[in-house]
Amino acid sequence: MAHKKAAGSAKNLRDSNPKYRWLKLSGGQLATAWNIILRQQGEKYKCGPNTYISKDYTIHAKIDGIVKMYKKKVWKYNARKYLRTFITVESAQAIS
User: Fold this and answer.
1) How far is 36 from 23, CA to CA, in rounded Å?
2) What 8-state DSSP symbol labels residue 35?
3) What is the pTM of this model?
4) Domain for residue 62, yes or no?
5) 37 lies in which domain range?
6) pLDDT averaged over consecutive 10-residue blocks of the chain (96 residues)?
């Protein structure tokens, strides 16, 4: 018979806070300047024109406009092509 309560019964009850990552604005939606478009871990999506990336790889809009996404083949240093997704913001005046 055990004389002490089993240790470790509460060791696995901790959890980290949620990060709320992924798309905040999808393609075709209206973005204002400094809006968050995408939160990501690492640089899976790349910045296109009128967007910038912050220290934690969050992609923001630089200007007011409509969010667009497109895929492009990019050459890497090892002479291989990779398909990358770029996120851009097109101004409303350029579209109309």
Assistant:
1) 9
2) -
3) 0.79
4) yes
5) 26-95
6) 64 84 93 96 95 96 96 92 96 74
Q: CA–CA separation, 4 vs 27, rounded Å?
A: 59
Counting every residue written for the chain, the total comes to 96
| Both tokens assigned to 1 | 């018979």
CB 69 within 8 A of CB 28: no
Give buried/exposed letters for 43-68 (b at 16+ CB in 10 A, else e).
Answer: eebebbebbebeeebebbbeebbbbb
**CATH code for the domain of 81:** 2.40.50.100
Token code pair at residue 55: 């220290």
The token pair that represents 47 in the structure block: 């910045």
The closest alpha carbon to 89, from 48, 55, 34, belongs to 48
**Cα distances (angstroms) measured from residue 71 to each of 20, 46, 82, 87:** 24, 10, 10, 9
